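Full entry
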Amino acid sequence: MSNIRSKIILVDDIATNLDQGRNMLKTFHSIYPALSAAKLFEILENITPDLILLDINMPEMNGYEAIKKLKADERYANIPVIFLTANTDVESELEGLELGAVDYVAKPFSAPLLLKRIENHLTIVQQKKDLLQNQEKLQNYANNLQVMVKEKTEEVMELQNIVLATVADLVEFRDESTGSHVMRTQRNYKAMIDELIQDDVYKEEISKWNMDFLLQSVQLHDVGKIAISDLILNKPAKLTPEEFEIMKTHVTAGVDIMERMLNSTKKHDFLNHAMEIIGTHHEKWDGSGYPIGLRGNNIPLEGRLMAIVDVYDALISTRPYKKAFTHEEACIIIEDGAGTHFDPALVDVFKRVKDKFRKMSHKSNEL
C-alpha cells in the first residue's frame, strides 16, 4: 500500500461501530468518523476524502438517500462509496450498486477483508488520477507540438513568400516600365476572388483551390520574362511583329521553369496554381490568345482571372510606346472585351470591384 495516508470518512449511526471501524483502519488511513449522513456532509465541507464507508440503515437520512445526494453534487460525485450493511440480500446489494456504490461489504466484516477492499478501490482511484494526468500531459504535449508546427509552418511560408517576392522583384526590375505591377496585380486578383466567393460565382472550382498558395503564385505570372532580352523587354518603342512573337515566348519560358520545379519536387498546390496562371493568362475567351489558343471554359479559371487583372494594370500603366489610360478608359476596354478577350461572368465581377482596383492603383502610385 502507498505510504501516503488516504482520507476516509466512516459513516455509521452506532458509536461502537465507528470506534471498531476506526481501530481497524487507523494504522493505514486517516479516519474521519460521522454518526449520521448529516455529519458526513458537514465533514465534506472541510475535506475531500479519497473514499467513503457508508452505513445503509441510519435514521433521518439512510445510506441510499445519502449516496443520491452525493452523486447529485459535482463536488462529491466521483468519490468512491463502499456500503457497509447487515443486509445480505441480493436486492439490497443490487440497489446500492445501481445508485453508484463501488462495493458492498456485509457486517460483521473482517479487518483484512475490509482493508483489502479499500486498497483495491483506492488503487483504482489512483490509476484514474494517473490516467487523467497522463492524458493532460499528452494533451499539453500535443498542444505544444501543434504550436511548434504552426510556428515552423509560418516560418517556412514567410521564407517562401520572401523568396517569391524577391524573384518577382527581379523580373520587375528588368522590365523598367512595370513598377509595382506585381504588387497591384496580386491585390486586384484577391479582390476578384473575394467577390467571386461572396457571390458564389464558379463556387465549385474555387472550392478546390488552396487560397494561400494561389495568391502567392500570382507574383510569378511573368516569371518567364527572365528569358527575354533586355533589348526587347525595355525597347523604348512599340515592338515589331517579330519582336512581339519573341515577347510572347515569356509564357512558355515561365511554364518551362515551373515544369522543372515540378519535376524536382512532389506535387504541390503552389506550383500547380503558378503553372495555370503563367501558362494561360494570355489566352482569350474567343480562342485568339496565346500560346495555345484555348477557348472559353477550357482556359483555367486562374488564367481567366489573371487576364483581366493583368490587362487592366497594363492599360493604366505608362509604357515607352503609350501613355497610361485613365481608370475609366481601362474599365471600358475591359467591359467591351467581355465574350471576346475575357470571360463574361468575370467581367460582371470586375464591374462590381473596379472601384477597388482604382483605390489600389492610387495607393501603389503613392508608394
The longest strand covers residues 6-11. The chain has 14 helices and five strands.
